[in-house]
Amino acid sequence: MLPNEIYNNLKTEFGDAIIEYNDAQPTDPFILISTGMLFDICHTLRDNEEFLFDYLMSLSGMDLGENVGVVYHLYSMKYKHKLVLKVVAPKTDPKVPSVEMIWRSADWHEREAYDLMGVIFEGHHNMIRILCPYDWEGFPLRKDYKVPEIYRGMKVS
Amino acid sequence: MSDKKRLDLEYSTHDSDKMRINVGPQHPSTHGVLRLEVEVDGEIVSEVIPHMGYLHRSFEKVCESMTYPQIIPYIDRIDYISAMNNEWPYVMALEKMMDIKVPEKVEYIRVIAAELNRIANHQIAVATFGMDAGAFTPFLYFFRDREYILWIFEKLSGARLLYNYFRVGGVSGDIYPTFKDECLDVIKKVRKTNAEVMDLLIYNRIFIQRTAKIGILPADVALSYACSGPVFRGSGVKYDLRKDETYSIYDRFDFDIPVGKGEVGVKGDCWDRNIVRMHEMEQSCKIIEQALAQMPMEGDVTAAFPKKIRPPKGEIYMRAEGPKGDLGFYIVSNGSDKPERVKARGTSFVNLSVIPEISKGYMFADLILILGSIDIVLGEVDR
Questions:
Q1: B53 vs B50: CA distance, rounded Å
Q2: What angle (nearest 5°) sits at the alpha carbon of residue A42, between those of residues A41 and A43?
Q3: What is the predicted pLDDT for the residue at A25?
Q4: Nearest by Cα to B373 from B214, B265, B257
Q5: Is the pLDDT of residue A74 over 80?
Q6: Which residues lie across from B21 on neighbouring strands?
Q7: CB pairs under 8 A between A and B
Q8: Does a structural domain hold residue B251?
Q9: pLDDT tens string A95-145
Q10: Scanning every residue of chain B, which has its alpha carbon at the shortest distance from the alpha carbon of A132?
Q11: Which domain holds residue B257?
């Protein structure tokens, strides 16, 4: 199924929760959806017989200036079609629902996005840092990140 | 007498406490700097918590201040055992964004280099897995043969391990005159050693008893954890991007996708994941033979090099089948010569996340084998 057909199907089912469909070249077409309905939409995408997106290829955090975004790359083993989903949350309140219960691989990906980009995934069972030390401060992949000068009494160059 | 009785009594009423053991980060069987926090009940593992990040080099942050060609050497260092395969999805993504068609000869050189690197990677994987199980001899055999592959790479790119060979639009240098003969020679050596190792290690009764029926990974669990590569195929799923999402010129070659069948134990156990790697080496040999026969000897490998690498504004997710599984790059371009964001979906990172799930309930000594059968490189886990 092509991304624009998936978009139309989702639009009829979820209405306003599906915000935008973008297929500008050379971009992979993506669907921007509202944060609140993310879990339900993902659940439909995985279990609906038409979509069957059972493989979460990648989950990445994005710095969008005022906001942080999360990008989901999905793949279906049966139909071999792909989809890119995006959600956006403001940096002042970067909360996005967790999809860990839908795809187990999201567990570590979400921890990584929290660790490096500071997106807080609500409903994640273990929202702690994964690559940086557990007591590290700040989120390194944000554009306005400043490297701390001292970490545990050691100089950070 | 009374003392003994009291002791017995205490022992029987006391619940066997669970103990927490620390494995790593400096431990030879963790294959790098990985720390496992293991909770054991007697000798049975009841919980595993991996702690990583000891090798975190902030690859993604570094990329944001580098130009596109400058990033390629850093990509070599993600998974330093299979650097050729790592570079491929990255250059392919940029070529797709900038709409570059690479010359025919380059495609063949890339396939041969990538498949040779796949063999080298699987040799290390099987060798270290055998060593985890206590077999040291195959390790020496494999490392001896791997050397011949590294010599080819050295002549191609100038480096033994971190090649910086794939460039956007081509490869950094042409093949040398004796390339073809040396590749055929290596294939002959690889096949001979593999046949030996099959007898010596794979179908060895001790090795089977040690590795079969442990670390069983059912296909649905593997799918939910987004496993890929031999880990996924060991569970009996025919999933290989070279066939499922054919890229480059892989549709021109005739090869099979080996999957785990539960030949000596249960489908998806450690032995199955290992045998998939052994069979894949043979398939890679087949691909290289066909590629060498079809490859045009004339042509300029640098013909399609772009003058300036400035991909148009946009984003792309490109993945390719590395030896460990699908390695993907998510590249966001803002139209300048430096990327806005590069995200590497490390194969080992995703494959390692299944460890807590599949090692529960096995003996502590088996945990080491289960970890070895996943074939991780910590450089890729931590990035």
A1: 10
A2: 90
A3: 67
A4: B214
A5: yes
A6: B38
A7: 84
A8: yes
A9: 899 988 888 888 899 999 998 888 999 888 888 888 888 888 888 888 888
A10: B53
A11: 93-378
CATH number, domain at A91? Answer: 3.30.460.80
Is the predicted pLDDT of residue A11 greater than 60, yes or no? yes
Contact check, Cβ <8 Å, B314/A26? yes
Chain A residue with the nearest C-alpha to that of B319: A57
CA pair distance B269, B217, nearest whole angstrom: 6
Nearest to A28 among B60, B316, B345 (CB): B316
Q: Is the model's pLDDT at B7 over the cut of 60?
A: no
* Cα distance between residue B75 and residue B94, in whole Å: 14
Which residue segment(s) compose the domain that A135 sits in? 3-155
Token pair 């799918």: residue: B223
- Whether B40 and B19 have beta carbons less than 8 Å apart is answered as yes
Q: Are strands A95-97 and A120-122 parallel, antiparallel or unpaired?
A: parallel
Burial zone of B142 (CB within 10 Å; 0-12 exposed, 13-18 middle, 19+ buried): buried
Give the residue on B whose Cα is nearest the Cα of A142.
B61
Residue appearing with tokens 């670390």: B215
Q: How do residues B48-105 score in pLDDT, each as one tens digit?
A: 888 888 888 888 888 888 899 899 999 998 888 888 899 999 999 988 888 888 888 8
Looking at the 3D structure of chain A, how many domains does it have? 1
Output the six-digit token pair for A85. 């989903």
Q: How many domains are contained in chain B?
A: 1
Amino acid at B128: T
- Residue A29's SS3 state is coil
Give buried/exposed letters for A93-126 (b at 16+ CB in 10 A, else e).
ebebbbbbebbbbbbbbbbbbbbbbbbbbeebee
Token reading at B345? 């979906």
CATH code for position B113: 1.10.645.10
Residue B71 lies in a domain: no
> Would you say B96 and B166 are in contact if contact means Cβ atoms under 8 Å apart?
no
Structure tokens at A22: 């973008």
Q: Which amino acid is at B101?
A: K
State whether A104 and B224 contact (CB < 8 Å).
yes
**For B238, which residue in chain A has the nearest alpha carbon?**
A77
- Joined together, the tokens standing for residue B204 give 């060895």
Length of chain B: 383
Residues of B in contact with A133 (CB under 8 A): 53
State the best of A30, A58, A63 to mutate against chain B, taking most chain B CBs within 10 Å. Answer: A58
User: Can you tell me the distance from the alpha carbon of B139 to that of B105, in angstroms, rounded to the nearest whole number?
Assistant: 35
Which tens digit of pLDDT belongs to each residue from B304-315?
Answer: 778 888 888 888
Q: How is residue B277 written in tokens?
A: 């790697």
- A20 vs B16 pLDDT, higher one: A20
Residues of B in contact with A71 (CB under 8 A): 330
Q: CA-to-CA distance for A129 and B7, rounded, in angstroms?
A: 45
| ipTM associated with this complex | 0.90
